[in-house]
């Protein structure tokens, strides 16, 4: 029996190299045991060598849509092109990162294609016979996940949280086909202009950190932040926060972990006063070791924790700091 | 003067949400509804544009009749006109159907608009898709994650956050933008605004006025369907000790040492 085909979106970074999130999408498609086609919007002149890593990560074919105007994202222009390609290629499944690009391009195209789109999927499964895609995402409120299907419309489209997918080691012997398609655009169609671009600092410490200490509402007062920060520094951890802590302006939005913030998968996660709303758990549950200190022994965070202390985190903190800073327990 | 449209959503008060396990839709009955907090940043953006270059603001919401409350809230803050899109036939719409219905309501209510300003996403569904889908249905340029906006002679100057940095953009109108929290801290209403909003007339658009294709509306007109609702199994069966004692901190330190996660 022939394999199902799954399309994924690849992205270039501002230096013209493939963004690693592209490989997370092909990894998802690999998990579905599909033949993988990749769509990429790029300025003219991207070399074949630039695209080769996509083949190493499982792609069978790359469709490159080229135009000099594709140095920056324009939802209307890309969305219309995407819809044309999706129809022409008879796409059945399309996966894209749930980042600023994917979360804008996909809904735009979904409307034009009159098809469904599921945001922030955490699990996917593809029926090899019917080609139906089960898309699972956290649903509103509480500890609930919903599995969503798009039965009668195509393509079935889903966005997936960046950094929520393990990427297997590349197979450097794999090759594939590149289809270049130079797109001609009507000048009048371009209603947006890029004046300038300022790159963000090279690395976001939080997303890349081995250890993360996260503060939740349970630390009670913003005055407690410096002590937590000091502890985090002493064990070489980055500082994160729950949505509740960010909403109270205790830490900036860039620290927010969870559905509406970042997804992290550190070696060690330490939650201080974090209760563990599902929206937060979605963003950290793949951490290798999870530690939580929270007053409420029934807090959901303890369900995912490897080690929990039901107690006041600000009372435990000084003990923990002195114990760990000395290089461990005697 | 800019003709601005502000789509807003009423959401259940945080923590009070329940789900109808048979349809997978949100149960709104019996829970207190508030304006989606992220929409308030869109409201603030619109009010600032009104102050800096003049605007007429229409706030629009699709929802049950009770959504009138959030419309009055935005009127109290300084919107000029309010439209409620409400019909049983629209209940249970997914993001595609909602985008479709909203776009048709906008066409009907304010055909000559210049700018639609949305919040980043609604805090209940958390998809952030409806704004983009509405813009697509209207054939507009859509610019999301906007942190700063100014307007000069019907051209917008925008700062957009991306995953790799920040962009300065010019966009011709008409357009749809979705703003983040960074766009501005929401103001509080004045008493005079509240009094005026209480008496303001709210235009109601139902299926009778819009006459939309029933196959594009509500549960039946939604391409996506919830097929299963379940409680995720996240449990790790870890150790739980009780009390903020030094002994417990020692147990934890030893545990971390054994796992070799702290050097």
Q: Please, could you describe this protein's structure?
A:
- The complex is a heterodimer of chains A (330) and B (263).
- Chain A has 330 residues and is α/β, with parallel strands linked by helices.
- Chain A contains 10 helices and 16 strands.
- Chain A folds into 2 domains: 5-189, 3-Layer(aba) Sandwich (Rossmann fold), CATH 3.40.50; 205-325, TPP-binding domain (Rossmann fold, 3-Layer(aba) Sandwich).
- In chain A, α6 packs parallel to α10.
- The longest helix of chain A is centred in the first third of the chain and has 14 residues, at 75-88.
- The relative contact order of chain A is 0.11.
- Chain B has one domain: HUPs (Rossmann fold, 3-Layer(aba) Sandwich), CATH 3.40.50.620.
- Chain B has 7 helices and 15 strands.
- In chain B, α2 (68-77) crosses α5 (191-199) and α3 (95-109) packs across α4.
- Chain B is globular, with a radius of gyration of 22 Å.
- The mean pLDDT of chain B is 92.
- Classes of the chains: A alpha/beta (330), B alpha/beta (263).
- Chains A and B meet through α3, α4, β5, β8 and β11 of A and β3, α3, α4, β9 and β11 of B.
- β11 of chain A pairs antiparallel with β11 (165-172) of chain B.
List the main descriptive attributes of the protein structure presented here:
heterodimer; A: 330 residues; alpha/beta; Rossmann fold; seven-stranded parallel β-sheet; 26% helix; B: 263 residues; nine-stranded mixed β-sheet; two-stranded antiparallel ribbon; 28% helix; globular
């Amino acid at each position: 029996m022939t394999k199902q085909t799954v399309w994924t979106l690849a992205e270039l970074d501002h230096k013209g190299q493939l963004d690693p999130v592209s490989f997370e999408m092909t990894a998802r498609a690999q998990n579905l045991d599909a033949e993988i086609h990749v769509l990429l919007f790029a300025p003219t002149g991207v070399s074949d060598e630039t695209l080769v890593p996509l083949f190493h990560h499982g792609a069978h074919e790359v469709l490159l849509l080229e135009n000099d105007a594709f140095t920056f994202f324009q939802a209307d222009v890309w969305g219309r092109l995407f819809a044309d390609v999706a129809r022409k290629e008879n796409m059945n499944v399309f996966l894209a990162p749930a980042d600023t690009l994917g979360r804008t391009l996909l809904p735009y195209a979904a409307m034009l294609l009159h098809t469904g789109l599921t945001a922030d999927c955490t699990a996917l499964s593809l029926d090899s016979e019917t080609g139906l895609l089960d898309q699972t995402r956290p649903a509103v409120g509480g500890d609930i996940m919903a599995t969503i299907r798009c039965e009668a419309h195509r393509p079935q489209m889903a966005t997936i949280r960046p950094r929520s997918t393990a990427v297997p080691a590349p197979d450097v012997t794999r090759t594939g086909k590149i289809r270049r398609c130079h797109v001609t655009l009507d000048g009048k169609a371009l209603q947006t202009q890029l004046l300038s671009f300022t790159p963000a600092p090279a690395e976001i410490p939080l997303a890349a950190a081995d250890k993360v200490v996260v503060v939740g509402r349970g630390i009670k007062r913003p005055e407690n932040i410096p002590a937590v920060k000091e502890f985090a520094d002493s064990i070489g951890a980055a500082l994160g926060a729950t949505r509740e802590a960010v909403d109270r302006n205790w830490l900036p939005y860039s620290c927010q972990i969870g559905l509406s913030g970042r997804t992290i998968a550190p070696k060690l996660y330490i939650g201080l006063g974090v209760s563990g709303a599902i929206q937060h758990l979605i963003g950290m549950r793949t951490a290798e070791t999870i530690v939580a200190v929270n007053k409420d022994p029934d807090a959901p965070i303890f369900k995912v924790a490897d080690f929990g202390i039901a107690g006041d985190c600000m009372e435990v903190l000084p003990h923990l700091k002195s114990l760990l800073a000395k290089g461990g327990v005697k | 003067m800019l003709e601005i449209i502000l789509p807003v959503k009423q959401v259940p008060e945080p923590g009070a949400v329940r789900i109808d396990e048979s349809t997978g839709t949100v149960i709104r009955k019996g829970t207190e509804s508030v304006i989606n907090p992220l929409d308030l940043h869109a409201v603030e953006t619109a009010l600032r544009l009104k102050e800096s270059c003049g605007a007429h603001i229409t706030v629009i919401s699709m929802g049950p009749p009770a959504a009138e409350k959030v419309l009055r809230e935005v009127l109290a803050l300084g919107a000029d006109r309010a439209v409620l899109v409400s019909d049983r036939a629209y209940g249970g719409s997914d993001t595609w159907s909602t985008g479709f219905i909203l776009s048709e309501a906008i066409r009907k209510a304010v055909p000559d608009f210049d700018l639609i300003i949305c919040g980043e996403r609604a805090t209940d569904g958390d998809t952030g898709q409806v704004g983009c889908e509405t813009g697509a249905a209207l054939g507009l340029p859509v610019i999301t994650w906007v942190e700063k906006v100014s307007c000069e002679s019907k051209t917008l100057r925008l700062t957009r956050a991306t995953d790799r940095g920040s962009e300065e953009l010019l966009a011709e109108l008409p357009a749809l933008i979705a703003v983040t929290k960074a766009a501005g801290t929401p103001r509080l209403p004045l008493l005079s605004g509240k009094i005026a909003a209480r008496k303001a007339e709210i235009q109601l658009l139902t299926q009778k006025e819009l006459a939309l294709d029933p196959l594009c509306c509500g549960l039946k007109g939604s391409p996506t369907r919830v097929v299963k609702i379940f409680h995720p199994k996240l449990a790790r069966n870890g150790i739980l000790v009780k009390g903020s004692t030094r002994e417990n901190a020692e147990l934890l330190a030893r545990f971390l040492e054994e796992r070799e996660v702290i050097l």
